[in-house]
């Protein structure tokens, strides 16, 4: 019997590597509250990612909410319907008003021209997402932020380690948010982070993640509990050691899929840009039903029958979910490209342990 294969599989260090860390945590009894392992992981991640400041969080969603709080975002916030639902949920928890804007069908990211068209006197911020680690048009978005005096918070949950023109994509905008959930390229089982550009902002963010405490008796902000614990940090320190090899293996897998699927009519793989160093976090393919001879859903269920469990990231669109479907910007006519892409996409399995043999089998099942 063939093994079941899922879209992703969490990378975990060997147990023998974890045990010394656990012993250290147990002996010291420092288990959370900005402990030495969290501080060390922050130091190593800032260096690895080539970013000035980073604050670790217990997950990416709380990091997003804290980022909105840190910049005191209010009113309307322009965002994408084509993402994981947490991007918009963070706005809801912050009581900001999501305004959905359509995507560019090639990058799958917010279309800057359509962002501009959606700006009103109530717009205070933009929350773009680097979907699948494909960089947003950060230069045009920066121009908009200057012209209209808008805050920019990038949801960079997919963009760990991604660089464009030799610099980290995480250095754009006011803040960038990472997720270290088990399904992401770099994981701490659950975890996240905010990348910031000044010492003052980092200090504010660090206070926000710890209930707003400045010292034992002083609370200056309505903070939250966003703290990463020492066990999460130890998994992060260990996973960071092998991240370069893992991304390299992901790249090989990506290229093998490209080679094996390039002749398949009606199937498109996300194009990669020349000036970008990717992390190969996802492998989205897009099915043009008429040419392919079957719909995306036909293929999705067919692969399921072969015990190949893909995911339709991102379908359905966030704008179709109950909390958001009645917003004016959720109208289908406003989001034509997003609707189309959401009907076409399947993310194929990609993770370092996936064997070439399995990839060949998956591609054979697709082209049949
Ligand atoms: C995973 C993810 C999040 C949420 O991160 P968690 O760590 O799971 O809370 C937010 N946005 C996007 C785009 C994601 O993929």
Overview of the molecule:
This protein has helices spanning about 15-30, 35-50, 60-70, 85-95, 110-120, 140-150, 200-210, 230-240, 245-260, 290, 295-305, 335-345, 355-365; strands at about 5, 55, 75-80, 95-100, 125, 150-155, 165, 165-170, 175-180, 190-195, 215, 220, 265-270, 275, 285, 310, 345-350. With about 375 residues, the chain is of the alpha/beta class. The chain folds into two domains: about 15-240, Aspartate Aminotransferase, domain 2 (3-Layer(aba) Sandwich); about 245-365, Alpha-Beta Complex (Aspartate Aminotransferase, domain 1), CATH 3.90.1150.10. The protein has a seven-stranded mixed sheet, sandwiched between helices. A three-stranded antiparallel sheet has the order 8-7-14, with no helix packed on it. A three-stranded antiparallel sheet has the order 13-15-17. β11 (about 215) and β12 form a beta hairpin. α2 packs parallel to α8 and α9 (about 245-260) runs parallel beside α13 (about 355-365). The mean pLDDT is about 95. The structure holds pyridoxal-5'-phosphate. Pyridoxal-5'-phosphate binds near residues 59 and 83.
Question: In terms of per-residue confidence, which ranges show pLDDT below 50 for 5 or more consecutive residues?
Answer: none
Question: How would you spell out the order of helices and strands?
Answer: EHHEHEHEHEHEEEEEHEEHHEEEHHEHEH
Which outline best applies?
globular
Distance between the termini: 20 Å
Under the CATH scheme, the architecture of the largest domain is: 3-Layer(aba) Sandwich
Radius of gyration, in angstroms, nearest whole number = 21 Å
Tell me the fraction of residues in β-strands, as a range.
Answer: 15-25%
**Major sheet size, sense and barrel closure:** 7 strands, mixed
Bound molecules: pyridoxal-5'-phosphate
Q: What's the structural domain tally?
A: 2
Helix content: 25-40%
Question: What is the overall number of helices?
Answer: 13
CATH homolog superfamily of the largest domain:
Type I PLP-dependent aspartate aminotransferase-like (Major domain)
Quick one: CATH class of the largest domain? Alpha Beta
Overall strand count? 17
